[in-house]
Design a protein that fits this description.
Layout: H1 2-5, H2 21-31, H3 38-41, H4 46-57, H5 63-75, H6 86-99, H7 105-125, H8 130-142, H9 151-163, H10 168-184, H11 188-201, H12 206-218
Helix pairs in contact: 2-10, 4-5, 4-6, 5-6, 6-7, 8-9, 8-10, 9-10, 10-11, 10-12
């Protein structure tokens, strides 16, 4: 049950498509591992506060402290679902996706459902939203067929996401996740191909490092 519910949260910090130029510029640097968080700390909007809180939470080592930090950050967002600001909705969903890794089953269900609700609202406004497409692809890839998963559909949506990637970090995310698709499919040639394509964009990107560590040490995809 837990495995099925988390199909919408498997991309943690990577699954959303921002429209703001400033946010996109920051994320291009963030995913290349050459960012300065001070660039966005000066902005007092709740969207930026959510992004800052997410990034800072990743440096917290103790899992209980990390959970408490994220829970407080999420609680700062009231009536978020009434908002029509896609950037803001995405920033809330990012926090929810990340806290799930440190939550117990009831909250996994709660936050997973809320995140799915956000995705649905975004897709109603923008059916070509990059990260909604990417998240759908990942969901299809990880969900058992009996629960609606489909390797064929996951590949279709990965390619839709790639086709709608406008930023360098979005192409990077597409390539990393396609490498994970091919890892799951045991297609070593294409797996290595997309690893190299990811490295060609961000040689020091942390997401690829995390993926390779899981692949090599746990024999699992992201």
């Amino acid at each position: 049950m837990r495995y099925i519910i988390v199909i919408y949260i498997l991309v943690a910090s990577v699954i959303y498509s921002y429209t703001s130029k400033d946010i996109n510029n920051f994320y291009n640097r963030y995913y290349s591992s050459s960012y300065n968080i001070g660039e966005i700390e000066k902005n007092n909007s709740q969207t930026y506060k959510n992004i800052v809180n997410l990034i800072k939470s990743k440096s917290i080592k103790d899992e209980k402290d990390k959970y408490n930090y994220l829970k407080e950050a999420i609680d700062q967002n009231k009536d978020y679902i009434k908002s029509n600001d896609i950037d803001y909705l995405i920033s809330v969903s990012e926090l929810m996706n990340y806290i799930i890794y440190y939550s117990k089953v009831p909250e996994i269900i709660k936050f997973g459902s809320k995140s799915k609700e956000i995705y649905n609202k975004i897709l109603e406004k923008d059916e070509s939203n990059f990260f909604a497409l990417l998240g759908t692809a990942i969901g299809y890839m990880h969900t058992p067929a009996i629960a609606g998963g489909s390797i064929k559909k996951s590949f279709e949506y990965f390619n839709k996401a790639l086709g709608n990637s406008k930023e360098q970090y979005q192409k990077y995310l597409s390539y990393v996740w396609l490498s994970q698709y091919y890892f799951k499919m045991k297609d070593d040639e294409n797996y290595k191909k997309y690893i190299e394509m990811s490295k060609n964009i961000y040689p020091n990107g942390e997401l690829l490092k995390e993926a390779l560590e899981r692949n090599n040490n746990k024999n699992k995809s992201l």
